[in-house]
């Protein structure tokens, strides 16, 4: 084979970077942060309220129709969902309407995404509801259904005839508080803390936390939570009055309780549920099938709510068949109240997963639709926006909000151009709050449960994607299944923890046992690739090229060494042991031979042993090695020393600057890096040439001697 022609690579000099002292950097940042000027104040305000930048440039004729249409449709969808998701959150329906109203207003001023719909979200409602039910139960209230009445605009609780009334005094306010009052106090305190956490994450630039929430993990988490949501709502479909299970295993325990009480099924609720689910599913299927022809989504939920409310009212399902209904929903706004600081220590830990999941969904959806529509968002500002969408509404009896995928997709598909659509949606909710809320008195809870369950179709359909996930990446499929199972069978919060920990463990496992390979040369080129993966590659005589496709650190050091020994076929320690045994054997044999000198004969035999190796150089291709730690550097030193004892030279090739800096800091290349040019090479081919040239020179020298 002709020798491959390459351009001689000169020695490259690294740039000298002068690193500033940490105190100098800190003082500079503080001076910039604390400096005050008119342009800085203006930039800060416009950054905090992006609306002042884009609203003056609003193209009225071009944008208004799309924003009006999408805002109206989202508002129509929001009303029944806001009432329904309160079942999940464990609070009265009016608070869902408050949450939807305030979240849309605040995000209009602070959000950077043009399409994201922020408001109530089933997953957030479930997580809030689990905390609310736990605290309500621990406070001594019963968790069965209650009838709510309004007195002077405030919700008051009247327990069923077989239940005793329980009042709780909130020390922070010195006031009597019933079950519903206490429930929304817990939800507001939880929401306030979640918002504070999100703002702190934005201030301290902790958005990197979301990188540990991989897409498969989030999908599995949402699917597992959907199972829990479906299970929690199943009792309403049958009209069963079963308290929500507290603790782990909600799905299993709840289904056991449902089947244990199946004989108490309310047939009015059951028949209503079957009809409503059939209509809702039919509407969704028609929407999916003819979405290209339909300019606007079918308002199936609104039609079902309106129809079911009218039938329930005129037939009197509640009075005749004891069907659970939504009850009185007051009009107007309840006076704002500071969230109870006395309750916050009880829910401080619960607010952490709420904050992380809420901002993770919001930021990911913002970036997804920004990329789709050709603009950019600021993730840090999105965290601030969703944080204040939780902090401010918590003073107005609201619970935790997040961006919602389904409503965001509807906004995008119905011509939304800016967040003006959010103002339109908030106006629709406001009309319901001011005028139409009392009309929902007779709306059955089973109808609301049907709306929630049918809305889970998208998350539950993720099961169909499991085979494709398995084909694309078995690791991602396993992460999805583990997270989904933990979220469904243990608890939603524990599912999040299990998903994050398991995802990180999967990455660690991948770096602990990465792919390793011996490389061969592509004929007549300077390129080298995996001998096992490609055909028509040439194995170089006397040179072994080894590639390790992971960082070299303390956790995979042993795997690196074992893989190297196996790939090249020589372990230095065993080779030295074999040689010493052979030397002893040769000396014994020489002692028995008459007329020969023992020493000479021994040297000849040892020489024969040393020439048994079929290579003289090992080249470590470090191109796929992003970094090495101190253990990795010591490993390099060890293999160079060990192989040198058996007559094999070890060279490094294609090291990035991070690896080189780590090696230099550990004096790997000797004093003043004097050995760098003969130990490290820019390409594999230059290392091969160096090894062959040195072997040729050594051979010529031995011949001359």
Summarize the structure.
By secondary structure, the chain is α/β, with parallel strands linked by helices.
Question: What would you note in describing this structure?
Answer:
This protein is α/β, with parallel strands linked by helices and 705 residues long. Strands 7, 8, 9, 10, 11, 12 and 13 form a 7-stranded mixed β-sheet that branches. A hairpin with a 2-residue loop joins strand 2 and strand 3 (154-158). The two termini are 30 Å apart. Mean pLDDT is 82; it is low at 1-7, 145-175 and 604-611.
What's the arrangement of secondary structure elements?
Blueprint: H1 22-34, H2 38-48, H3 51-54, H4 60-89, H5 93-110, E1 118-119, H6 122-138, E2 147-151, E3 154-158, E4 168-170, E5 175-177, H7 179-203, H8 215-238, H9 250-260, H10 267-289, H11 300-315, H12 317-321, H13 344-347, H14 351-373, H15 379-391, E6 402-403, H16 405-413, H17 420-436, H18 445-454, H19 457-460, H20 466-472, H21 474-489, H22 492-512, E7 516-522, E8 528-530, E9 537-538, E10 542-548, H23 557-568, H24 572-592, H25 598-610, E11 615-621, H26 630-645, E12 649-653, H27 657-665, H28 676-679, E13 680-681, H29 684-704
Parallel strand pairs: 10-11, 11-12, 12-13
Antiparallel strand pairs: 1-6, 2-3, 4-5, 7-8, 7-9, 7-10
Helix pairs in contact: 4-5, 4-6, 4-16, 4-17, 4-18, 5-15, 5-17, 6-7, 7-14, 7-15, 8-9, 8-18, 8-21, 8-22, 10-11, 10-18, 14-15, 20-21, 21-22, 24-25
């Amino acid at each position: 084979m002709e020798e491959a022609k390459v351009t001689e690579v000169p020695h490259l000099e690294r740039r000298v970077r002068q690193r500033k002292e940490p105190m100098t950097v800190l003082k500079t940042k503080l001076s910039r942060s604390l400096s005050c000027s008119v342009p800085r104040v203006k930039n800060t305000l416009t950054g905090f309220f992006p609306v002042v930048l884009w609203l003056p440039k609003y193209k009225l004729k071009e944008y208004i129709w799309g924003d009006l249409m999408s805002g109206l449709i989202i508002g129509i969808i929001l009303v029944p969902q806001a009432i329904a998701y309160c079942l999940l959150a464990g609070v009265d329906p009016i608070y869902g309407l408050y949450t939807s109203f305030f979240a849309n207003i605040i995000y209009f001023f602070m959000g950077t995404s043009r399409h994201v719909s922020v408001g109530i979200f089933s997953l957030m409602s479930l997580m809030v509801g689990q905390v609310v039910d736990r605290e309500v139960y621990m406070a001594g209230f019963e968790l069965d259904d209650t009838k709510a009445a309004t007195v002077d605009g405030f919700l008051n609780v009247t327990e069923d005839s077989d239940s005793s009334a329980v009042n709780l005094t909130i020390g922070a306010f010195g006031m009597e508080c019933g079950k519903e009052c206490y429930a929304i106090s817990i939800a507001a305190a939880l929401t306030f803390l979640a918002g504070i956490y999100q703002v702190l994450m934005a201030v301290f630039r902790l958005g990197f936390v979301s990188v540990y929430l991989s897409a498969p993990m989030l999908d599995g988490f949402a699917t597992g939570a959907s199972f829990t949501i479906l299970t929690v709502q199943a009792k309403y479909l049958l009209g069963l009055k079963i308290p929500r299970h507290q603790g782990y295993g909600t799905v299993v325990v709840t289904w056991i309780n449902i089947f244990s009480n199946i004989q108490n099924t309310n047939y009015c609720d059951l028949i209503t549920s079957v009809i409503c689910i059939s209509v809702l599913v039919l509407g969704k299927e028609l929407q999916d099938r003819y979405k290209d022809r339909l300019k606007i989504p079918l308002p199936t939920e609104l039609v079902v709510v309106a129809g079911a409310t009218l039938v329930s009212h005129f037939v009197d399902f509640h009075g005749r068949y004891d069907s659970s209904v939504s009850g009185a929903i007051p009009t107007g706004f309840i006076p704002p109240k500071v969230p109870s600081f006395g309750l916050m220590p009880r829910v401080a830990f619960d607010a952490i997963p709420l904050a992380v999941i809420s901002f993770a969904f919001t930021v990911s959806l913002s970036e997804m639709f920004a990329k789709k529509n050709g603009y950019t968002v600021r993730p840090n500002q999105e965290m601030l926006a969703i944080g204040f969408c939780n902090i401010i509404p918590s003073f107005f009896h609201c619970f935790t909000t997040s961006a919602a995928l389904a409503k965001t997709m509807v906004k995008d598909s119905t011509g939304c151009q800016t967040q003006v659509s959010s103002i339109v949606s908030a106006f629709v909710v406001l009309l319901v709050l001011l005028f139409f809320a009392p009309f929902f008195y007779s709306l059955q809870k089973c109808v609301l449960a049907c709306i929630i369950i049918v809305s889970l179709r998208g998350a539950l359909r993720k099961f169909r994607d499991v085979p494709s996930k398995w084909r694309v990446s078995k690791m991602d499929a396993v992460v999805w299944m583990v997270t989904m199972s933990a979220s469904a069978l243990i608890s939603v919060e524990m599912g999040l923890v299990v998903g994050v920990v398991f995802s990180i463990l999967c990455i660690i496992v991948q770096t602990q046992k990465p792919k390793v390979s011996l490389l061969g040369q592509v004929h007549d080129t300077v390129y080298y690739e995996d001998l096992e993966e490609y055909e028509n590659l040439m194995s170089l005589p006397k040179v072994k090229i080894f590639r390790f496709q992971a960082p070299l650190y303390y956790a995979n050091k042993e795997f690196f060494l074992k893989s190297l020994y196996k790939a090249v076929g020589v372990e230095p320690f065993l080779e030295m042991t074999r040689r010493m045994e052979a030397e002893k054997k040769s000396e014994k044999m020489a002692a028995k031979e008459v007329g020969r000198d023992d020493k000479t004969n021994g040297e000849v035999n040892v020489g024969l042993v040393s020439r048994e190796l079929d290579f003289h150089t090992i080249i470590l291709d470090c191109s796929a090695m992003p970094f090495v730690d101190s253990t990795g550097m010591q490993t390099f030193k060890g293999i160079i020393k060990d192989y040198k004892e058996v007559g094999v030279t070890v060279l490094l090739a294609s090291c990035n600057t991070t690896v080189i800096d780590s090696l230099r800091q550990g004096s790997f290349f000797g004093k003043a890096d004097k050995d760098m040019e003969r130990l490290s090479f820019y390409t594999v081919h230059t290392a091969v040439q160096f090894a062959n040239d040195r072997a040729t020179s050594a051979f010529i020298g031995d011949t001359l001697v």
